[in-house]
């Protein structure tokens, strides 16, 4: 279920910080990495979790990966959460 993947991805503070950085606009993996004291494999795992949840989109520009925030997935997950709450007994 997509909503579960979204909230699982949002459960880690590093991933939330990545999303906050991407609110300003697309950034390369290298630019994002400058904001964290994490190993490349650890940061890559966080990027993958965000991609699996479709919270970020990625495009390749030459040798760089450029990450974009996908706000529509966040909005959809919040809408799903609120509609689920309305259905509760």
From TrEMBL:
CDD domains linked: HTH_ARSR
Recorded GO MF terms: DNA binding; DNA-binding transcription factor activity
Keywords noted in UniProt: DNA-binding, Transcription, Transcription regulation
Pfam families for the chain: HTH_20 (PF12840)
Residues of the HTH arsR-type domain: 1-89
SUPFAM superfamilies per the UniProt record, alphabetical: Winged helix' DNA-binding domain (SSF46785)
Domain of life: Bacteria
PANTHER family: TRANSCRIPTIONAL REGULATOR, ARSR FAMILY (PTHR33154), TRANSCRIPTIONAL REPRESSOR SDPR (PTHR33154:SF33)
Name the UniProt record assigns to this protein: Autorepressor SdpR family transcription factor
UniProt source species: Ensifer adhaerens (Sinorhizobium morelense)
């Amino acid at each position: 279920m997509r909503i579960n993947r979204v909230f699982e991805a949002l459960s880690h503070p590093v991933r939330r910080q990545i999303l906050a950085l991407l609110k300003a606009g697309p950034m390369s993996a290298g630019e994002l990495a400058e904001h964290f004291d994490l190993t490349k494999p650890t940061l890559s795992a966080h990027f993958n979790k965000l991609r699996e949840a479709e919270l970020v989109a990625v495009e390749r520009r030459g040798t760089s990966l450029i990450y974009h925030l996908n706000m529509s997935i966040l909005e959809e997950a919040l809408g799903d959460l609120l509609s689920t709450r309305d259905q509760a007994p």
